[in-house]
Amino acid sequence: MTGEGVKHTPVLSTLFRMMDDSELQGASEFIKDRLYFATLRSKPKSTANTHYFCTDDEFLYENFYADFGPLNLAMLYRYCCKLNKKLKSFTLTRKRIVHYTSFDQKKRSNAAVLIGGYAVIYLKKTPQEAFRALTSGSNASYLPFRVEQLMLILQN
């Protein structure tokens, strides 16, 4: 399975073997055999071995002008609580957990901030390690954030 000519690791290829290349834009492993982040074209169905969840419509940025993020600290906190609950859930104990996001570049960048923040806070990853996980392999680049409010202040 490839994304823009780059092969996924064997674990990620196995995890997403049911999807063709047009369905999967990129995937990252945060906890070996347990926690993943993926960009998927359509909503997957959870299986006996894998639980999928998406936060694209749950944690929404209230834009000032044409900006779209990043999400605020309260949303990161709620995301961390949600993910910790999933990781500790008895019914999900033996399942791989996949936080997936859509191909929408704005939602994808905000979802990356959430799991990247979780990796730094709870998994004790360095910011560089979290960034590397999100950008390595077949992962496409992320849309950079714009701070419109700051731009307006600087113009005045």
TrEMBL record:
Residues 29-146 form the Dual specificity/tyrosine protein phosphatase N-terminal domain. Its EC number is 3.1.3.16. Gene3D superfamilies: Protein tyrosine phosphatase superfamily (3.90.190.10). InterPro entries: DSPn, Prot-tyrosine_phosphatase-like. One of its GO terms (molecular function) is protein serine/threonine phosphatase activity. It is an enzyme of class 3 (hydrolase). It catalyses: O-phospho-L-threonyl-[protein] + H2O = L-threonyl-[protein] + phosphate; O-phospho-L-seryl-[protein] + H2O = L-seryl-[protein] + phosphate. Pfam families: DSPn. This is protein-serine/threonine phosphatase.
